[in-house]
Design goal:
heterotrimer, A alpha/beta, B mainly alpha, C alpha/beta, A: alpha/beta, Rossmann fold, C: Rossmann fold, 2 domains, six-stranded parallel beta sheet, six-stranded mixed beta sheet, 12 strands, transmembrane transporter activity (chain B), transmembrane helix (chain B), transmembrane (chain B)
């Protein structure tokens, strides 16, 4: 925490000290602290799930922090609703635009803020003034549905400014933009800064952040890691900060890799709804006893790769073999029955029935296999007993198998899922971010379980954003970038820096 | 959570709901200038035996309708089309039984089976549209309801026999009727024999839901479709199958009256049971026993509505509004209790792991 | 999403089950607003069982109430009213009649043919109480032996419809008329059949548009409580060139009147059941050529009176032209110039020279 606590100053637009926020079962933020001087662009970076969005919701008054304090322009504040934040001059531009297509720019802007300048001439004058001041080039009478993405975003920003915001939070503003639009946006942002606005810019695109920000605060695992100046860091260094390299590494043991191929993927291609490839020419081989790690910045095709192997989405080309069987045309259930275990990236969406008791969750994904099922009939007792076994063997902290899954903490939910997926003795385990959002203790336990399974001959596909985890667990690391595998590394020799440059494509340029 | 607390919570919701509904209904009666005391006096009077029989009959019919809706609801499939499936099923059974291709009770059995098949197929259309073309089942079933009404109306006019100003299907031969059961000695009304179908269907629903893989997949899909997909549930097939099942049960709704009282499909055919079934399923939380209680409450109110209308002068519309209030109150009360229960459970889990969790947080 | 859809479902169900509750229109005149409560005579104690909607529909049910009102005034009758809830079955209708009989009401008047099966059953249970069903067909349901205490009060709607058909034919300039029916059931077909015959009797070349609001005979809601549907149907016929439209669609007919009023001068509508000129808003009055009168009031009054006199009819009583049970209205004076021709047609029916069909030609 290098940049903590400079002397309190009224020139600081925002000062956040020791913010913590817990949800049932998850600690989203803890001990978040940073300071944003007025009239600067401050970037907040971190991987998905690092706690950025919770932090933003707290700053914008959507959620109340459990602990810590926020000061705005040197005054301590406590927001209960976004309107409290707006009253303090804080505005937010959401990643997903909140505009009514069938209304004009003017109507969209005044909607909900009719009291400020009415809905007529005054409002129009104000909008035109803001638009020309910052070079937005928006016509108040144009219908929003006719606008492009970049223009819509400017309408969103205009909305915020119209309501008098001096501090503007932009949530992943470049996610929806093409490069030219990004440049235009940055010009607008610089104009805003020149006029004395303070901008909080949330992103995980490091090169952009380095281009625009005055200061960069890095968040990892729910807490602030560091605040740095762009001049002092490289994109590689930033990536390291984001994914962590100073945590105790999971120590690699001697290789258990055999020469029997368990999973073989050839020429896999997946296209999205619009027909654009999100995965192309993927060739993968995982042997028994081998952990293959996939490194990559999120959104480069990892999710699709996992879903294609599990059978949740249909590839447009390629073959997959499990052992000596061609599983390309198999349905998810058959793949799972034949020994694919699956620890999903999003355990709430894909791993658990949150409203169901643990023993029913034990059956999930194993609807056709003992001990919980016998020929189409549920074996409640079998499922219960096996749930008890998982609870004790995997150290799931819960009152018992009747507890609903949603009541457990994230770490315990994850341990339960790992236990469940291991219980049917899989031959291939797909572990997607197996320790994300999990506390440190549970993380170590999960790592141990994966290692033990590997010793017993399990093939593991490990996807992680945590480079230490990848390096510590994998026998081989493949880097994925824009839907392609772009490099193979040996974890024994690779450094996080090497991986970082491969992941961001910096290696390509050389 | 200990068992006493569990039961307490389970009872809390309905009690709360009926208290709310009672207060609102009384207020409504008072505002509309009705006799509130008379209303409660009549409501709380134990019905006569013949009325009890009516209530049980209607409960059975509504129960079947509620079950049909609940099968879909359990997997978040909003089969609003129970009404149409019920009409199609009843009509098919009436025609088949009226034609009497088979003798006696074989005729009855055939008609009942075909009613289920017809209801299932009608519902299956919506299921297929949903999985192949992505058409929301809410929209398609509402449209199919309308089509069912028109189709059946047209066919009745085509093949029916006219009595006075009423056209209906041919009367079913007496040997294929299913007689009533006198449960209270001498009453002019009897329990429809086929109302017992409701019990069979209820038990089957319960077993299917709680003891079979299919039921598990159904519930899993309802709770989280994404998790079900990841677990290897073929959601498309589940959608079609549960629509078929739902429609098959909907096809049964008309059987007790058809074989026990009306003996043909005609102008005095009861409308709206399919919609009432949706309400009953919601009231009963899609639970086999809950639906039965919900059906009982609705039937009781409908039966008392008559007496209220004649003796106290309360319009049946007010009774219908009361049903609506109960429904809303139940849904709201259950949501409150559900949240309370979740919070309670979370705090109990937190207690269990209190020490380590907070330390980890600080680590 | 799940919560949301649940709430949406509740709202949907609530709207489906509660729809139709807001239709009470108590503007049927101050004299009847109190209903039975004002009556305190020592004449017959009448139990009235309405179908869905009940008193206040300005049409069918109100017409029955007018007869009851007359019985209260002239015979010192007292009464109680009961009305149906939406989506009933025969059991519930039986129970309504049974409760009325049990409470000592005699006679019990069931308004609407839908009560026929229920009345047939309950009349057998209460041999000392008199039951009647307006438009009923209960006589076909009681088995071999008719019940002495049960009567269907039916009407020769085709005869009245014939007369307004003659009026329509004599009024149309376009040689093109229309008919809007509620549900496509046997009862309303009688209206169509008579109207068609009446029109053709004047000029076989006149074109007749026929539209039923629903083909589903069970769907009274879309058929008879659907003014917007009625308006749409009438507009369609006007677009095709019809200039006189007769409706037999209960409350939906109000939509027909609206469409005709909007179409302007020279376009006419013909009312049904009661003299609708009397209850229509001022602007519509100018377009209501005449109304086919179905004297349910007469039937109810005469029946109550007969029961009071100890001469209750049984089986079937048909109210026809000869007995003034059906007819046409002259309010507004729009048919004054053709009255002779209409009356001549009426004479032919009464004498039996013309036999009006009860089912449409096709």
């Amino acid at each position: 925490m290098t940049s903590l606590a400079p002397a309190p100053s009224t020139t600081d637009a925002v000062r956040v000290t020791g913010i913590g926020k817990r949800f049932p079962g998850v600690i989203a933020n803890h001990d978040i602290s940073f300071t944003i001087p007025a009239g600067t662009i401050h970037a907040i970076v971190g991987e998905n799930g690092a706690g950025k969005s919770t932090l933003m919701k707290i700053l914008y008054g959507v959620q109340k922090p459990d602990e810590g304090s926020i000061e705005v322009q040197g005054e301590k504040v406590s927001f209960s609703t976004p309107s409290d934040a707006i009253a303090r001059g804080i505005g937010m531009v959401f990643q997903h635009f909140q505009l009514a297509d069938n209304l004009t720019v003017l109507e969209n802007v005044v909607l909900g803020a009719e009291k400020l300048h009415g809905i007529g001439g005054d409002a129009r004058a104000k909008i035109e003034e803001i638009s020309s001041q910052y070079g937005f080039g928006l016509d108040p009478d144009e219908l929003v549905e006719t606008l492009g993405v970049g223009e819509r975003q400017r309408v969103e920003i205009l909305k915020v400014l119209y309501r008098g915001a001096r501090i503007v939070i932009l949530d992943e503003p470049t996610a929806v933009l093409v490069p030219q639009e990004v440049d235009a946006l940055f010009d607008n942002l610089r104009e805003l800064k020149a006029e004395g606005h303070t901008l909080i810019f949330i992103s995980h695109k490091l090169d952009e952040v380095l281009k625009i920000a005055d200061d960069i605060t890095v968040i990892r695992r729910g807490t602030t890691v560091d605040t740095v100046k762009p001049a002092d860091v490289t994109s590689r260094k930033l990536a390291e900060l984001m994914v962590g390299s100073e945590l105790p590494s999971p120590s690699t043991e001697e290789s258990t890799v055999t020469d029997r191929v368990e999973l073989e993927v050839r020429g896999l291609e997946v296209v999205d709804a619009a027909g654009r490839p999100v995965l192309s020419d993927i060739d993968l081989t995982i042997h028994r006893g081998e952990v293959l790690g996939i490194a990559g910045v999120e959104g480069n095709g990892q999710t699709e790769l996992v879903e294609a192997i599990v059978g949740m989405l249909h590839p447009s080309a390629g073959t997959m073999r499990l052992g000596d069987q061609d599983i390309s045309s198999w349905h998810t259930r058959k793949r799972r029955e034949n020994g694919i275990g699956f620890i999903p990236e999003d355990r709430h969406r894909h791993g658990l029935l949150l409203e169901a008791p643990l023993w029913e969750n034990r059956i999930l994904g194993h609807q056709t296999r003992p001990p919980s099922v016998k020929g189409g009939w549920l074996n409640r007792r079998g499922a219960r007993e096996d749930t008890e076994r998982i609870i004790s063997q995997y150290d799931v902290r819960t009152p018992g198998p009747d507890t609903t899954a949603g009541a457990l903490s994230g770490g315990n939910q994850q341990k339960f899922i790992v236990g469940r997926e291991m219980s049917s003795e899989p031959v291939l385990l797909i572990a997607s971010h197996p320790t994300r959002g999990v506390d440190v203790g549970a993380q170590a336990q999960i790592w141990d379980h994966i290692r033990e399974a590997r010793r017993n001959g399990l093939a593991v596909l490990l996807i992680s954003a945590d480079l230490d985890e990848l390096i510590g667990l994998s026998d081989t690391i493949e880097v994925i970038l824009r839907g392609r595998l772009v490099g193979t590394f040996d974890p024994q020799t690779v450094t996080p820096q090497d991986l970082g440059s491969a992941m961001t494509g910096a290696g390509e340029e050389k | 959570m200990n068992p006493a607390k569990r039961i307490g919570l389970a009872v809390a919701a309905p009690v709360l709901a009926f208290a709310i509904a009672g207060i609102f209904a009384s207020a409504l009666l008072a505002v509309t200038g009705n006799d509130v005391a008379g209303f409660w006096d009549t409501m709380l009077t134990w019905p006569e035996n013949r009325q009890l029989v009516n209530i049980l009959n209607q409960t059975g019919i509504l129960y079947l309708s509620g079950l049909a809706a609940a099968i879909g609801f359990r997997m978040n499939l909003f089969n609003i089309g129970v009404e149409g499936q019920y009409r199609i099923g009843t009509f098919v059974a009436a025609v088949v039984a009226g034609e009497a291709w088979l003798p006696g009770k074989a005729n009855t059995l055939l008609a009942i089976v075909l009613a289920m098949v017809a209801g299932a197929l009608w519902a299956g259309i919506a299921g297929l549209l949903r999985v192949t073309r992505g058409v929301s089942e809410v929209i398609s079933t509402i449209m199919l309801n309308s089509i069912a009404g028109l189709l059946v109306g047209y066919l009745v006019a085509k093949v029916g026999v006219t009595t006075g100003v009423s056209t209906g299907t041919k009367t079913i031969p007496e040997e294929s009727w299913v007689g009533g059961i006198q449960i209270f000695g001498d009453t002019p009304t009897e329990l429809y024999g086929l109302v017992l179908l409701a019990i069979v269907a209820g038990v089957a629903f319960h077993v299917m839901l709680n003891n079979t893989t299919f039921g598990f997949n159904l519930r899993a899909t309802g709770r989280s479709e994404s998790a079900a997909v990841a677990a290897g549930v073929d959601v498309k097939r589940m959608v079609v199958t549960s629509m078929l099942l739902s429609g098959a049960v909907a096809g049964l709704i008309g059987m007790p009256v058809l074989f026990g009282q009306a003996h043909n499909y005609g102008t005095s055919f009861q409308l709206g049971i399919g919609f009432a079934g949706i309400a009953v399923a919601l009231l009963g939380r899609n639970h086999p026993v809950g639906i039965a209680l919900g059906a009982l409450v609705f039937s009781f109110l409908a039966e008392q509505g008559n007496v209220l209308n004649i003796l106290v002068g309360v319009s049946p519309d007010i009774v219908a509004v009361t049903q609506g209030i109960i429904l809303l109150a139940v849904v709201i009360a259950y949501e409150f209790v559900r949240r309370y229960r979740l919070r309670l459970e979370q705090s109990s889990v937190a207690e269990q792991v209190a020490g380590p969790a907070t330390e980890e947080a600080k680590a | 999403m799940r919560r949301f859809s649940k709430i949406a479902a509740v709202a949907l169900v609530a709207s489906l089950t509660l729809a139709g509750c807001g239709n009470d229109d108590n503007s049927s005149g101050s004299d009847s607003a109190e209903g039975c409560k004002g009556a305190s005579g020592d004449g017959p104690k009448v139990g009235l069982a309405y179908d869905v909607g009940g008193r206040g529909d300005r049409s069918f049910n109100d017409s029955a109430w007018e007869g009851m009102q007359k019985a209260i005034d002239d015979l010192g009758a007292t009464c109680t009213e009961a009305k149906a809830a939406a989506g009933e079955n025969d059991t519930q209708r039986e129970e309504r009649l049974r409760t009325l009989a049990e409470q000592g009401f005699d006679p019990v008047v069931a308004i609407g043919f839908i009560y026929s099966p229920a009345a047939a059953k309950v009349a057998a249970e209460f041999p000392d109480t008199h039951f009647s069903v307006i438009d009923g067909y209960s006589q076909f349901l009681v088995g071999e032996k008719p019940l002495d205490n049960l009567v269907d009060l039916t009407f020769a709607e085709e005869q009245g419809s014939y007369l307004v058909g003659v009026a329509a034919a004599l009024t149309t300039k376009a040689k093109h008329v229309g008919f809007v029916g509620g549900t496509h059931g046997d009862l309303i077909k009688k209206f169509e059949a008579g109207y068609e015959a009446g029109v053709k009797s004047v000029d076989p070349s006149i074109k007749i548009e026929v539209k039923y609001l629903t083909e589903d005979p069970n769907d009274g809601k879309v058929g008879f409580e659907n003014p917007s549907g009625g308006k749409l149907a009438a507009e369609g016929q006007l677009d095709k060139g019809a200039d006189v439209i007769y409706h037999a669609a209960g409350k939906s007919g109000n939509g027909v009147f609206e469409a005709v009023e909007a179409a302007g001068d020279g376009i006419w509508a013909i009312g049904v059941d009661s003299d609708q000129y009397q209850t229509a808003p001022a602007g519509q009055k100018e377009h209501i050529l005449t109304s086919m009168l179905k004297r349910i009031d007469t039937a109810v009054f005469e029946y109550v009176k007969a029961v009071g006199d100890g001469q209750a009819p049984s089986g079937n009583v048909t109210y026809d032209l000869a007995g003034d049970g059906v007819g046409y209205s002259t309010s507004g004076g729009f048919v004054d110039d053709i009255k002779d021709q209409i009356d001549a047609a009426a004479e032919k029916i009464k004498s039996g020279e013309v036999k009006v069909p009860t089912a449409p030609a096709n």
